[in-house]
What does this fold into?
Amino acid sequence: MTDPVAADRHRERIAAERRQGEVVAAGAEDAWGWLSPAGRIRADRRARFIAASCGLGPEISVLELGCGTGEFSARLVETGCALTAVDISEATAAICRRRLGDRAKVVVGDIERDPGVEGPFDAIVGVSVLHHVDLDACLDATFSHLRSGGHFAFSEPNMRNPQVWAERHIGVVAKLRKVTPHETAFRVDELRARLERAGLAVTTCEPYEFLHPATPRVAIGAVMALERLVIATPLRAIAGSILVAGRRP
It folds into this structure.
């Protein structure tokens, strides 16, 4: 029997994500900072991590969760992979579809219930998507489409980062950063444990990155040099993101 409370929360999340998608499609895409000079470096880094972790290339079938307007989809198809990209928002999926043309299949689907795709896929990937959903429901509904031996790779916000924590716990900060009420973030040990409980083999789960998207162009080189030093210290624990990758046994 369906839990009515869980069902209500699911409907609220879907409605909020679709509203968010309409806002993004109307011109608020840079709220997440991918379009700034530093943001583009950050986006390229994540795309390279995903491609390397999953061995993306020609004839590799890939399911991208939460594709949005296609900021990362456009990078992933450059590997030559066979990409299927899914998003809950009709508005952002339409932009992604126009952006990619016939280089990928873009569908509207609910990755907590029915992603609307046919697998199996060689890889399932995404950037800043798992913290938007009921993770356990997503793993159950979507990762069943990952073939045995297939790989996964994601980048997610790190709850131990001060800005990320503030966005999730201080209302005015959440509003300024366009964070919806149901969004969360992860801690490294927690994320690894939840993926492993779902039967996945986790090979990488680590804090990552101190380059902020608001970093001025002239300061990017210095910040990246400092980042290389800081990442080797205990301060790494408060990096902005978590990189996680692995495979389905």
Observations:
- The longest helix spans residues 4-28.
- Residues 211 and 223 are 6 Å apart (CA to CA).
